[in-house]
């Protein structure tokens, strides 16, 4: 929670808009609350099916509600200049790999990274290293991932790569 809050605050301090799913729970709520409290802009992007059954953050700068998950992810990529994955569940992994795959296929050239809080992404890093060793992943693809352990560091690296 502390790191999510620090990331939200740092995004606002750097005048970077936070784009996320718009939820009002967990780490993402902390991220949004911190960015908003620091005067930042926060944009939520969700699908109608979730909007109909879940509570969404009431203080967002904007909330986009789309009919399909595919359209949601497409708009999130369009609205974003870079991507940071915080610890999370299957949705986090799915979105991380979507951004990773789209970059490798040449659909975007935006920087993306893993904010490795308390070693959360170490098993994923091992899996990626194994995929590279076995010839399923090029070293250049591995090098595309920005890796950091704190919000300042990951944002510095993302900005350096092109935000």
Automatic annotation (TrEMBL):
<dbReference type="GO" id="GO:0008714">
    <property type="term" value="F:AMP nucleosidase activity"/>
</dbReference>
<dbReference type="InterPro" id="IPR005269">
    <property type="entry name" value="LOG"/>
</dbReference>
<protein>
    <recommendedName>
        <fullName>Cytokinin riboside 5'-monophosphate phosphoribohydrolase</fullName>
        <ecNumber>3.2.2.n1</ecNumber>
    </recommendedName>
</protein>
<comment type="similarity">
    <text>Belongs to the LOG family.</text>
</comment>
<dbReference type="GO" id="GO:0005829">
    <property type="term" value="C:cytosol"/>
</dbReference>
<keyword id="KW-0203">Cytokinin biosynthesis</keyword>
<dbReference type="InterPro" id="IPR031100">
    <property type="entry name" value="LOG_fam"/>
</dbReference>
<dbReference type="Pfam" id="PF03641">
    <property type="entry name" value="Lysine_decarbox"/>
</dbReference>
<keyword id="KW-0378">Hydrolase</keyword>
<dbReference type="GO" id="GO:0009691">
    <property type="term" value="P:cytokinin biosynthetic process"/>
</dbReference>
């Amino acid at each position: 929670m502390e790191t999510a809050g620090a990331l939200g605050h740092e995004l606002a301090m750097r005048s970077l808009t936070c784009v996320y799913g718009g939820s009002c729970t967990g780490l993402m709520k902390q991220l949004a609350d911190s960015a908003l409290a620091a005067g930042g802009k926060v944009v939520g992007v969700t699908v109608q099916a979730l909007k109909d059954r879940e509570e969404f953050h009431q203080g967002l700068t904007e909330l986009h509600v789309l009919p399909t998950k595919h359209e949601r992810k497409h708009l999130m990529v369009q609205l974003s200049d870079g991507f940071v994955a915080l610890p999370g569940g299957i949705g986090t992994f799915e979105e991380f790999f979507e951004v990773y795959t789209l970059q490798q296929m040449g659909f975007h050239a935006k920087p993306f990274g893993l904010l490795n809080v308390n070693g959360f992404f170490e098993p994923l890093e091992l899996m990626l290293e194994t995929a590279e060793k076995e010839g399923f992943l090029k070293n250049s693809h591995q090098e595309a991932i920005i890796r950091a352990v704190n919000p300042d560091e990951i944002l510095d690296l993302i900005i350096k790569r092109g935000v």
